[in-house]
Amino acid sequence: RQEKSLMPQALFDRIWDELVAPADSTEYGQFRLWVRKTFVLGAPPPSFSSESPSGAADEGVALLHNGFLVAVREQLYQLLCTFHGEAQHGGHDATVGLIYESYRYVPKKLVQEFVKARSTCAAK
Question: How many domains does the chain have?
Fold first, then answer.
């Protein structure tokens, strides 16, 4: 469960492969069922910025969970920097609000720690 709360690139790739070519899958049944029940490939949500990291392999197609993009652990720093800048370096609530318009799998606690670690933003 811990692995799935911050999705690593390797897990993202396994899920992507399962959805793109299920007939070629070598994954176990429980994983395949979880993927089919939890994720779909589709167009990014309207609130998605093309400058934001998406983890998608193909332009215009993204991995979605309940209609939202899935954030990949290895891209979280870039994602946090992008959305914190869009929030005009406001607090963690503003940053989380912008992130959650398009993404899932970004823990609020992580955003809090990120904003807190930025000395110029923590003083606000």
Answer: 1
Domain span at 79: 2-122
Judged against a pLDDT cut of 90, whether residue 89 lies above it is answered with no
Q: Does the model's pTM come out above 0.90? A: no
Q: In what order do the strands lie in the sheet with 62-65?
A: 40-42, 62-65, 68-70, 103-104
Backbone angles phi, psi at 63, to 5 degrees: -85, 125
Give the whole-angstrom CA distance, residue 83 versus residue 120: 16
Cβ count within 10 A of residue 9? 12
Tokens of 19: 């959805």
Three-class secondary structure of residue 41 per DSSP: strand
Beta bridge partners of 41: 63
Whole-number pLDDT of residue 44: 84
> Which CA distances in Å does 56 have to 29, 78, 79, 102, 119?
24, 15, 14, 14, 32
